Amino acid sequence: MTHFMFSTGIENSSPTIDNGRKRIDEMEICDHYRRWREDFDLTQDLGVKTLRYGVPLHITWLGPDRYDWSFADLTFGDLEKRGVIPITDLCHFGVPDWIGNFQNPDFPDLFACYARAFAKRFPAVQLYTPVNEMFVCATYSAAYGWWNEQLTTDRGFVTALKHIVKANVLAMHAILAVRPDAIFIQSESTEYFHAENPQSLDHAERLNERRFLSLDLNYGRRVNSEMFRFLMDNGMSVDEYDFFMREHLKSHCIMGNDYYWRNEHTVTKDGKTASSGEIFGYNEITRQYYERYGLPVMHTETNTSEGPCCDEAVRWLRKEWANVLRVRNSGMPIVGFTWYSLIDQIDWDIALREARGRVNPLGLYDLDRKPRAVGKAYKQLIKDWREVLPAQSVCLKVPLAPYGPERAEPRAVQQKTETSENR
């Protein structure tokens, strides 16, 4: 696969709210379980060849070594027949009820076994996002108190973060044991914090280091002294930190980055934050992340509301695409672009904190599966640019680095094997 990856996605968030009593399942409330064939038809009609697509984890993973693959068999089998390449999203903001939440220390090892079982079940899948937006997931679940464990403490945040990133790393090891040429596209939110005044500079500096924590741990990059102290003071042990420095698989990764107008923030003198809107933009913030990690880039999420005049989303698409071209022309290897998602979403205007049932017109198509103006514009953009960009793409047919004894599976994954595949 050598072409630039024009992509979209099926939104599959599934966090719990109300202290775990209610689950927000975007696939269900957006009617994908019933209309998945129609959604795949729309994907093909756009000219999209890669689709960010996830397994509904909470209804597929029934317990240790227990799986219900029925829906995944239908959908992944159909995608393979169509020639649409999935970027497979294994965990998107929620875990099954029997896991509890991201404070559970057993989650990483258990999730690695699930990832290995998936890779064995679907050997044609090469591209993975094991855990979507690790930083956002830990922040909303354990710092803001919105989802899952609904904590609002630094210790809760660090606990969630270390479990989520460890689950991601162990899952990569487990998948590579089955498919050695697997490629991992992280899909992580890229952020920036702007100081409102001189008194807020220290707060902004700390937040601008904290935004990197998930990828620093995932890619084995040593954090600065203040972030190291923050991690140690809030429950991470030296052995746990050393695990991330030792067991990372950076050479198998593409740095997927997500950018929305709300990803930039203003910081006040008392450390409070609010959205600043777009100030730097995608090109500048991507440069900061690329200089830190030096990995090929994919723009893995963006959107904005269509609005009453129906042209806001089209303008945002054109602006983001101009930024993608600027990234490419600046010498950063960028391999794909994603408008997320294919169809409208529900309740993301309040970050899924409540089940209000409010439609957010963010999709290429509305919930009746009728094209929005941005859907028509994206289809034309793909047609216009598809044959222009492949020369700078990254070939994904072979592993980016060897997988051998120096990157052997962690012991926990070696010792745990699937005893039932529920075929």
From TrEMBL:
Residues 402-423 are annotated as: Disordered. GO terms for molecular function: hydrolase activity. Pfam families: Glyco_hydro_1. Keywords: Hydrolase. Transmembrane segments: none annotated. This is Glycoside hydrolase family 1.
